[in-house]
Queue: 3 jobs
Job 1
Amino acid sequence: MRLLDIKEGTSGCPGGPISSASSRTSSPASFSTLPHSSQLPPLNTSVTMAPLPPAEKLSLAVRKNVRDEWENNKADLEKQLSELLGTEWTVEADPKAIWPYHNDGYAKESLGSCIKAYVEGAIYQIKYLSGRYGSEFATEINDLAHAHVLTLEVEDQDPARFSYNGCDIKDGKLRILFNETCLGTNVDYALQENSLLPALNAAPSDKPFSFHARNSIRQDYEPAIGAVKKDIADLLGKSVDEITINPNFEANFAKLSESKPSLEDWQERLGNFTLKYFEGLAYQMKYQKVGEDELIQEGLLEAVSKNEYALRIVDTLTYDSYGEVVVEDGVLYIQAKPDTFGTNIDYAAQKLVDQL
């Protein structure tokens, strides 16, 4: 028998088209069609459901399948997961607690195979996302799921957060969660990007930024800001080491978090937007001939005496509607409001020369 593999948008569970359980050999390009995390149901709901009573005893056939397919492979799966994440992880699954949700489907007779498939799918997704987001992705998982335990459990929130399955982090454990009516369906996708990333973002953390913001900074800002800094330095006739680019991430994140940004996905775009503001500054400096007109260059260097260029989120702009630049105490600030953050980025510094 094969696990059901139902694509989002089909009706019923476990009804619908049947195909191979594993799509792990297919191209990762399918991730580009996933909905944005801001379109997903919230991870936290107010109602927690009590689980069904566990099975008192499993049949001999089911126990044999659990032994052969799950218990005999558990150590190897834990080894794969531990090597992938760079530290020791364990996997927990209670067959008696899971079996009552079989709904006369695949797991009714092949419970061990079903549990194994969920764990294999989780390892595959973590491996794929680690390749996409770099070595820091494993560090994030290890820090946020600090118990270093992967579990398989029924989704306990009502209404359910997932159509078929998903994941969250609870008590430091990374939980694979299946909808109570969909055990054995779409097992490869429980930790797909639009489930795992929101779960990491919702996990308790003492870090100053959310996971989404940290990930955006790593992916979008850090690899590219060096080239932008060089452009600005060249326009000023300075070396790269002589100027400071201050993204002001911690203060800006705090300000945006307490306000109402115009974009729901601002956390995922924090790094990109911040980079674009500095790119816009460089563009306006070039357009306004900072690198060509000695008088303008001299005026800018005199005004921005600390050679620092910063981005900050403010409650009120001084003279513009979406973004602006002001000079205070030798620092040039690119300013935006929470409700205009990310809007008309290229024009924030359009009145640069007027401020000198």
Job 2
Amino acid sequence: MYGPPVDLSFKNLSNVAGALAELPRSLLRPLTTNSKGKYLSCSLRLSNNSLTDLVGLQYTINHFFAQPSKLGWLDLSFNKITCIEPVLCELKELRVLYLHGNSIWNLSEVDKLRELQHLHTITLHGNLIETSKGYRNYVISVLPRLKKMDFSGVTRDERVMADIWRSHSTKKTPISLSIMKCCLSYKMVDFINI
């Protein structure tokens, strides 16, 4: 069931439900379907459209996929999305999520994705949140299972700093001077100042 993605990119869609009237783009590897005409894939590409929200996403996934609950890869890059909607957290098997090149402006929107236990790859660069102080470290601390962020591997040092920040932020205790010195040695002062 690991066929090519159902590719609905570059369709000039202003809403997700508009995809229902479209045929997926042809790829090098053809899409295969089951006896009901549903695609045998676990990947969906809705990139390079004009989507502002994700209303109708679950219905659209159910429409196209033979096993909608198995969706593991979702590309929503280069749209006009401003927030991370709860429907994404309904995709329990999601492992890869591309949201780069959108208009997400509030860093705390990332908190909503904590529920995704299998999420290991995310892209958020090209959104306004990228300019937030401590952006990368914040995302890694909120999503501790990440292996890749913005097409770059999460380093051991980044994971250590995220673990320190997360443990102190949940306890609501100030970060000690010794931890601050440690952070200075890692040149991550911006991370502590979140």
Job 3
Amino acid sequence: MLAVPTEQRSEKSRVICEGDVVVVYERHDRMKAVTVAKNGELQNRFGVFPHNEWMGKEFGCQVKGRNGAGFVYLLAPTPELWTLALPHRTQILYIADISFVVSFLELRPGSVVLESGTGSGSLTHSLARAVAPTGHVHTFDFHEQRANAAREDFARNGVSGVVTVKVRDIQGEGFPEELAGCVDGVFLDLPQPWLAIPSVVRSLRPDGLVCSFSPCIEQVQRTCEVLSKHQFADIRTFEVLLRSYEVRHENLSTSFECSEQTFSKEATKSPPHKRQRGEVDEKGGPESEGHAEDPNGGSKTAAGSIVKQSRPVIARPYPETKGHTGYLTFARQATCM
């Protein structure tokens, strides 16, 4: 996914060149794909970033804004990062579903894959990497403008050598006849995938696999019925749910420690009584065995030594977890002897 071929670059370093696509990383949920141009610049909330200063730097480096207000990371584009940074022309598949598709279609270098429809090209980039360098991805979309935009993305990201984009209504016309019997895997993202199953049967090699992505269970039921009628075996449907965790440092002087301190104070407290003259109040008296606050965030004992409070790393699930995206139905073309 680089403008300058990998073989023309140094083996020990991958530097940014003019024309490269760079994924500008601000945080895990805020990225942007930028094509490096001479005298170009990027402006965001962290400042102004001239492209000329990027050229010659290695991918993965940190660069600061011209005004020094902040910094970003310049990452080499990968299918995973492209999925998070690409311009959305349609709803897309994300990493959880994509990894499942690539794995269960049993894709490897040299495989031939059919995809319908192309959409924004999120899945296509991962398919291309899986089958490269000797395989090929044939992707189809009925919308000509979308297909042209996807073709430009594939050329810009350097995967056009293993991806062919065509405008075709797969539900109505089926896959091209020239691909009959030479396909290892088929992926369908269609409103009525069952209409394309007869064409899938003609295209797949013996023991080939098909995957259909559908958001509604009614689509899944009808697709499974048609797959069964065409003698497909090992028909299975999955729903992939991803739960993300946030990892951060956090002070734990709460809950258990607080309750333990409260219990110890309550246990040693004297019973209620009228204070006598000269008696020192527990709250106002000197802390002979306690800890005094230290301005650096720690605590100071009576002996004068400073005890630093530890900040352990906490992992907890995000309060908002992505739910249902769609159902993935897989089936294997069986051969009758």
